[in-house]
Design a protein that fits this description.
This protein is about 65% helix and about 5% strand. By secondary structure, the protein is mainly α. It has a five-stranded mixed sheet. A two-stranded antiparallel ribbon has the order 1-2.
């Protein structure tokens, strides 16, 4: 369908006018006003920019994803601009509805005028010829997945069955297999649509758990958002912390909150997930350049199947936005249709957006770009390049047939991104101390053996690290380190050693699900259900890593692929190098967990995983090889999501499927938690500190604006402090403390009962003084 310029511009102008009318008259039945406003602000600015840049695309999904990415960038940078300029004109609350809406109107209209004259001969070609009835009908089940996820989360929140979530996971597995088996009958439209709604449903099954903010990092993310919203202004002076430096969780949600009528927590629990679900689709679109639709689909499916995607990303909203821009930057880098100057412009926009969205995603990007650039320069030397060509030819690999010489990453792009990163982190927000400290400790650790052998617990899932972590040793080391830091203050504020030394802190085992009927049947066959589930999950995690290496080698031998860019291989090698450093150097693994790192790099490395499965099954006919690869992917998915372990029982419960388990104990927020924290905020003595375990600290900050001291081991409990215990500490007689490791240990209630007074209890929380 050819859409003419006047038609599109008339529609855009009409949408802007309607959005303003809805806000002026407060018209919002059934959240219609919210849907229109959200769609307008997240799509319209990006669409206008696409006209200005004269970006042509024949894919509805490509247009939509570019529009959303550009709109998100404009919201954050535009919000920063009005936050900086409007106070100079005596508008002291720039981030309220009227200034935001007025600025949006002015900005959009100016861009619209520019776009109108820039796009004189431009028309938008959208192809719907592939949207046949059977394609649309087969896409409908995937649209129902988010609804099933929502019903499932609500059911478990109310203490009901997890049957809906189990049906969701099983249905995704079956639907994926059907897509692969009947892949020739569907158009390319079906694959990205299925990926989007499957991804969204997986995110919602975790994000919608609890009626309150639930999770780890999301507690502080929500806190900095509320700081910005409360002041209607963003400033680093409010909270000098790296979290406050990320506009993805300060200005972005504040702008969204100003135009939406529902509770702020659903910006994090719902809107961010709606946005992040686009990430698998972007992966699919940029990998299609190298392969068929079904293999690109499988690569994106692996990205969604890794546990970090659905267990942690809904609690890492700043990283979700960072990943969107990271994926878009890769999409632009490997695009065939975009002119080089447009690619540079978009790469800089998306690169800058990563910098202000999430610092770790930014550092990973710079590292792998730098590795790719260095490798390209090394191979540009004639002797080295010709030697490599001869080696490849001796292996019956013709580089000219299987590799392209196109290189987009340049010194200019790297210098621009590094410069902006330096200016933002060191000069504007002054939050670069963290990365400087990590680098110093890392370099020191290379040359001087550290006495502290702590590493992130994620390392245990690496094929390169087989040493088992001793829970007691890890706990003792953590208590010692925490005590040293705490007692830099006056020793007199703590209890004497003679008082607390008899209250030993010891690790305890996590609870397991009871065996189901099927699990009992297997157990009667003399099978260890726990061992079976544990080995299958570890095998899945290890196999994905092994497949990365096999796939990278197979890329050079698997001849049915389209030619791929050397640049892509260089970026993959940069990712593998970074994973190796993460495993070898403990400071990096503690600051940025391996599983989060691997999830980000799967945006690149998911494709080699698919190629590995195809390569290993290449003894079969191609069609059967693809189907077998699909079964392998679905088996990984059902194993890692907890479907199999919940079906059998006898294994650790997961929060997305049960009201139990480590994540549930640590991060789930109940109404009684909210009530007790609000009581403490109202009644506490301002001169007395508050202490809580690590999960409690986040809840106290997000809910009650209470800056609590971290950890409540008897040796570091202050004499005059309030001690806040969560439901975990009470019901399970255990505390979950997170320091890039999950530590479950006995509660200090006995110590508190003997040394302090219980001043508040509501069944889910206790407060001592």
């Amino acid at each position: 369908m050819k859409v003419k310029r006047n038609q599109v511009f008339s529609l855009i102008l009409s949408v802007i006018i309607i959005t303003n009318i809805l806000h002026i008259f407060g018209f919002n039945p059934f959240f219609i006003g919210d849907v229109v406003s959200l769609s307008t602000i997240l799509i319209i600015p990006g669409i206008i920019l696409l006209f200005i840049l004269k970006v042509k695309s024949h894919s509805v999904w490509e247009v939509l994803l570019f529009a959303i990415g550009l709109s998100l960038a404009l919201i954050m940078f535009g919000g920063l601009l009005i936050n900086t300029i409007l106070p100079k004109f005596q508008i002291v609350y720039p981030l309220t509805l009227t200034p935001i809406l007025a600025s949006f109107d002015v900005f959009s209209l100016v861009l619209l005028v520019i776009a109108y004259f820039r796009a004189k001969d431009f028309s938008l070609d959208l192809y719907f010829n592939n949207l046949k009835k059977h394609n649309l009908l087969f896409s409908l089940p995937s649209i129902l997945f988010p609804l099933l996820a929502t019903v499932g989360a609500i059911s478990i929140n109310n203490g009901g069955t997890n049957l809906f979530t189990m049906i969701l996971l099983g249905s995704i597995g079956i639907y994926t297999l059907l897509l692969i088996i009947f892949r020739h009958k569907f158009s390319s439209f079906v694959f990205p649509t299925a990926l989007y709604f499957m991804g969204l449903s997986l995110l919602l099954m975790t994000s919608l758990r609890s009626w309150y903010i639930t999770g780890h990092d999301i507690q502080r993310e929500y806190y900095v958002f509320q700081l910005t919203k409360t002041h209607h202004f963003w400033s680093m002076d409010f909270y000098k912390d790296a979290y406050n430096a990320m506009l993805s969780i300060t200005i972005l949600p504040t702008v969204l909150s100003s135009i939406l009528s529902f509770n702020d927590i659903y910006i994090y629990k719902l809107i961010f997930q709606v946005l992040f679900a686009t990430c698998p689709v972007i992966i699919y679109l940029f990998l299609k350049k190298y392969t068929t639709s079904v293999l690109a689909f499988l690569a994106a499916f692996y990205f969604m199947s890794f546990p970090t995607f659905y267990s942690d990303m809904p609690m890492l909203n700043r990283q979700e936005i960072g990943f969107i821009f990271f994926s878009l930057l890769l999409f632009v880098t490997f695009s065939l249709s975009l002119p080089k100057h447009i690619k540079y412009f978009l790469s800089i926009i998306f690169g800058f957006s990563i910098v202000i969205s999430h610092y770790s995603t930014n550092y990973v990007l710079i590292f792998i770009l730098l590795v790719a650039y260095i490798l390209s320069k090394i191979l540009s030397f004639k002797k080295i390049g010709s030697t490599l060509v001869q080696i490849l030819k001796s292996l019956h690999i013709n580089p000219k047939n299987q590799l392209t010489d196109k290189m987009f990453i340049s010194a200019f792009l790297l210098i621009v991104l590094i410069t902006f990163s330096y200016l933002w982190n060191s000069q504007v927000t002054k939050t670069s101390n963290n990365i400087t400290g990590v680098l110093q400790k890392t370099l020191s650790g290379i040359f001087v053996k550290s006495q502290n052998e702590n590493k992130s617990g994620d390392i245990a899932y690496s094929i390169f690290f087989t040493q088992k972590i001793d829970p007691q040793k890890l706990l003792n080391q953590y208590i010692e380190d925490t005590s040293k830091k705490a007692k830099t203050a006056d020793e007199g504020v703590f209890y004497d050693k003679s008082v607390y030394e008899k209250y030993q802190t010891t690790p305890i085992k996590q609870s397991k699900l009871p065996l189901t009927s099927f699990g009992g049947f297997l157990s009667n066959l003399k099978l260890s259900i726990f061992t079976l589930n544990s080995l299958s999950r570890q095998f899945s995690a290890f196999a994905m890593q092994i497949f990365v290496f096999i796939g990278l080698l197979a890329l050079l031998f698997y001849r049915t692929l389209k030619p791929f860019d050397k640049e892509y291989i260089f970026l993959c090698l940069g990712g593998v190098t970074l994973l190796a450093l993460e495993i070898i150097l403990p400071e990096i693994s503690i600051e940025y967990g391996l599983l989060r790192m691997f999830e980000q790099l799967l945006i690149l490395l998911s494709f080699p995983i698919v190629i590995a499965t195809i390569f290993l099954t290449s003894f079969l006919k191609e069609s059967k090889s693809i189907i077998v690869s699909g079964f392998i992917a679905v088996a990984f998915f059902l194993t890692l999501t907890g479907f199999f372990s919940t079906f059998t029982g006898g294994y650790y419960p997961q929060m997305n499927l049960n009201n139990a388990g480590t994540y549930y104990d640590a991060y789930y927020t109940r109404k009684n938690n909210v009530v007790s924290i609000n009581w403490l905020a109202t009644h506490k003595d301002k001169n007395s500190p508050v202490q809580a375990d690590n999960s409690g600290v986040g809840k106290l900050q997000a809910i009650g604006n209470i800056s609590a001291l971290n950890e409540i081991f008897p040796p570091i409990i202050r004499r005059n402090s309030y001690v806040y215990l969560t439901s975990t500490n009470l019901q399970n007689n255990a505390i979950v403390s997170i320091e890039k490791n999950v530590l479950v240990f006995n509660s200090p209630q006995e110590f508190l009962n003997d040394t302090k007074n219980l001043i508040y209890s509501n069944g889910a929380s206790k407060i001592y003084k």
